[in-house]
Amino acid sequence: MKWRKLIKVAFQSILKNRMRSLLTTLGMIIGVASVISLLALGKGSQDDIRKQVASLGTNMIIIHPGSSFSGGVRGGSGSQATLTLDDVDSLKNEPELIRYVSPDIRLSEQVIAGKTNWSTQVNGVSVDYLKIRNYTLSAGSFFTARDVKAKSKVAVLGKTVSDELFPGQDPVGTRIRVRNVPFTVIGTLSGKGQSSMGMDQDDIVLIPESTALYRLSDGKTIRAVVLSAVSEEKMNDAQARATEILRRNHKLKDDDEDDFHISNQTEIISMAGKVTGTLTALLSAIAGVSLLVGGIGIMNIMLVSVTERTREIGIRMAIGARGADILIQFLIEAVILSLIGGIIGILAGLGIAYGIGSAMGASVLVDPSIIVLAVAFTAAVGVFFGFYPARKAAGLNPIDALRYE
Amino acid sequence: METIRLTSIYKTFDLGGETVKALDGVSLDISPGEFLAVMGASGSGKSTLMNIMGCLDQASRGEYYLEGIRVDTMNRNQLADIRNRKIGFVFQGFNLLPRTSALENVELPLLYSRTGSRKKSRDRAVAALEMVGLAHRLDHHPNQLSGGQQQRVAIARALVNDPAIILADEPTGNLDSRTTVDVLSVFQALNDKGITLILVTHEPDVALYARRIVTMKDGKIQSDRNVENRTLAGSLGADSGPWEV
Fold first, then answer.
1. Where are the domains of chain A?
2. Residues whose CB falls within 8 Å of the CB of residue A273, separated by 6 or more in sequence, listed in order
3. Pair B42, B217: CB distance under 8 Å
4. Strand intervals (E) in A254-306
5. CA distances to B36, B173, B179, B182, B196 from B209, in Å
6. Contact: A318, B54; criterion CB under 8 Å
7. What pLDDT score does A200 carry?
8. Nearest to B112 among A1, A16, A399 (CB)
9. Is the CB of residue B141 less than 8 Å away from at least one CB of chain A?
C-alpha cells in the first residue's frame, strides 16, 4: 500500500479519538518536554560558565610559585618565591606555542587621588597583559615597552577604581599616589564584570612590571606569571612546554616535584563540564523512565485500537492484505502517535525553557541536534512499543477477525 | 478448465478435545460463468465451504484448484495474494470501512495488489461503481448510504480486481425484500456478463435466482441440481435509477 495512504489511514484513526490520543501521548509529551527544557537550561548555564571562564583570558595559562617547606612547616601555594624574571624571559622564547607572557606582580595597595582613596590591587604587568586577560581600553592608552624599560610611573585604572576615585570624571592625565609614589594615569579599562569566582575584575590598577618590582616591591617576588597559548588546541602542549622550561630553569631533578603550580582554563571548564555531565546523566535517567512510561501508554492504546478494529483488519485481510501490510499500518500509527507526542513535547519543552529563562534570567541554549535526537528517539519508541500490538493485528485469523463483533 | 475444483475436502475442528467434522469429503466443480447457490441449515458446513473456497481457511485434507492453480498447499501470504487477485467477497454485514468514501472502499483491493499499475486504480474503482449503478455516490460514506447501496458498494469492491469468482455470503441477510431483489438483480446482471458467482444462503427464495443449487447437510453435499424456472429480478433499478451492466 502507498505510504501516503498508510499515513492518511493512521491520522484518520488517531483523529477519530482525539481525546484518547492526546491522553495517550501525554506520557511522551511530559517526558520529552522535561528533557528538552532541562537540557536547554542546562546547556545555557554551561555556556554561561564557559563564557565567564573564557573572559578570564584568551587561552590563558597561569603559573603560581610553589609552596615553601621549612622546618616541617609547609607554606601555602605561592609562599615560596620561585618565579623569576628569567623564567618570564625563557617563556617568551617559545613563539610556536606561547604567544604572550606577562609577569603579574600583585600588590595590595591604598591608592590616593586628591582627597579620596581606595584600597585595590596594583598589578605590575607586561605590555601584553591586556591581550592575555581580554581587557580593552576605554580611554587613553596603555604603557609601552619603553615605559617598562624606564620603570615609568604610569598607571591604567580598572573601571571600579576609576569610578571610585574619579566619579563622573575622565582620570586620564591626573595624578594618583601609591605608597607615596606618584603615578600619572594614562588610560582606563572597559568594565569586565565579575569573574566566575565572584571576583571584581575591574578593581585593579595596572602598572609596568619593572615599576612594580623595583619601585613598590622587593625587586624579585613575582606572584604569578600569566601566558597565552597560540590556540585552544595548543593549550596542553604550551602548558607542558612551560612546565619543562621552568623545571630546567629551576634545576629540578627528574624525581623532584614541581616548585610551581601551573593551571589553565580548560581545567576549570572541564570541572564545570563534570558538574553538568552529572546533571545530564540524571536527566537522561528521567528521560528514560518517562519515555518508557510514555511508550507503554502507546502500546496500551494500540492494543485497544487493534481490538476495536479487529473487523476492519478482517476486511482488509479478506480483500488481500498480507500480514505485513497490517503490521506496517499499525506500526505507522504507533509511530505517528509517538511523534505527535514528541513534537508537542519539544514545543512545550522549548516554551517552558524560554519561559523559565526569561522569568529567572537564566540563559537558554537549544542545541538543534537535541531536537533531532528527540524526534528520532520518539519515533524509535513508537516502533518499539507499537511492534507488539501491530504483530498481534497482523497475526489475526481473517475468519475470526471478520466475525468479531 | 474449471474455475473451482474441490476434491474430497475434509475440514475438522477441535472444540475442547472433541473433534467436529465441518466438511466430510466434499467434491465440487464449478465452471466459468456459473451462478451457484450453496444452501443449507446452520451447521451444515456451508460457511466452512465458503471460507475454504474463499481462501480464508484451509482444508484439513483434500485438494483445491482455483483456475487450475493448487491453493490448498499455499502459505498465508500466497493466500492473501490469491484473495486479492482471484476472489471478490460480498458479506452479509457489507463490511465496508466506516468513515471512508465509497470510492476509497472500492479502491482498497487495488491498494493491496502487488501487480499492475496503481495509476488507474481510481478509474477502475469508478468503473466498478458505475457497473453497480452508484456512479453518483462516489464520495458518500457508508453511513450516508442505504443498506442496498452499501451492498452495491461491496459488490463493486468485489468486482474491481476482475476476480475469477465472486463469493457472496448471505448478501441479502440484512436487507428488506425489495432491496434483496435489487441486489440479486445486480448479481444476475453480472452473471449475464460472464462473471462466476457463488451465493451462500439459507433462503430458498434467494437461491432460486441462481442457475444451480448445491445443498449441504452435515458436512456433505446432499443435492446438486440446476434451477429450472429460475427467478429473474429484471432491471428493477429501485432507487438508483436505470443502470447498465
1. 3-52+270-403, 81-258
2. A46
3. no
4. 260-264
5. 9, 15, 14, 12, 14
6. yes
7. 83
8. A1
9. no
Q: Can you read off the three cell numbers belonging to residue B93? A: 454485514
Q: pLDDT over 90 for what percent of chain A?
A: 36
Nearest to A402 by CA among B217, B103, B97: B97
CB pairs under 8 A between A and B: 59
Q: Between A323-360 and B76-86, two packed helices, what is the crossing angle to 10 degrees?
A: 100
Chain B residues in contact with A320 (beta carbon < 8 A)? 80-81, 83-85, 109, 112-113, 161
Q: From residue A36, how far is each of A31, A228, A319, A362, A368 by CA, in Å?
A: 9, 37, 45, 15, 11
Residue predicted with more confidence, A57 or B155: B155
Give CA separation, A280 vs A48, A239, A273, A286, B131, in Å: 16, 30, 10, 10, 65
Count CB neighbours of A329 within 10 A: 24
> Are residues A399 and B108, on separate chains, in Cβ contact within 8 Å?
no
Between CA A168 and CA A124 the distance in angstroms is: 26
Instruction: Provide ipTM, 2 decimals.
Output: 0.91
- Total residue count of chain A as it appears in this document: 405
How many angstroms away from the CA of B113 is the closest CA of chain A? 7
Question: Which residues numbered 158-177 in B keep a CB inside 8 Å of some CB on A?
Answer: 161
- Sequence spans of domains, chain B: 33-55+88-231
Q: CATH number of the domain at B33-55+88-231, please?
A: 3.40.50.300
* Neighboring chain A residues of B108 at a CB cutoff of 8 Å: 316, 319
Distance (Å) from the C-alpha of residue A338 to the closest C-alpha of chain B? 23
B109 to chain A: which residues are within 8 Å by CB? Answer: 319-320
To probe the interface with B, which of A8, A312, A315 has the most B CB atoms within 10 Å? A315
**Tens-of-pLDDT digits for all 245 residues of chain B?**
899 999 999 999 988 888 999 999 999 999 999 999 999 998 899 999 999 999 999 999 999 999 999 999 999 999 999 999 999 999 988 999 988 899 999 999 988 887 655 667 888 999 999 989 899 999 999 999 999 999 999 999 999 988 999 999 999 988 999 899 989 999 999 999 999 999 999 999 999 999 999 999 999 999 999 998 888 887 544 444 444 44
Cβ distance of A316 and B108 shorter than 8 Å: yes
H/E element, A379? helix A368-394
**3-state DSSP call for residue B19?**
strand
Read off the amino acid at residue B69: I
Measured between beta carbons, the chain A residues lying within 8 angstroms of B157 are 319
- Whether residues A399 and B113 touch (CB distance < 8 A) is answered with no
Residue B17 dihedral angles phi and psi, to the nearest 5°: 85, -15
Searching chain A, which residue's CA lies closest to the CA of residue B119?
A: A2
Mean pLDDT score, A273-283: 75
Closest CA–CA distance from residue A395 to any residue of chain B (Å): 10
Cell of A127: 605590555
Task: Write out chain B residues lying below 8 Å of A315, CB-based.
Answer: 95-97
Query: Where does the pLDDT of residue A277 fall: very low under 50, low under 70, confident under 90, or very high at 90 and above?
Result: confident
Q: In Å, how far is A11's CA from the nearest CA of chain B?
A: 12
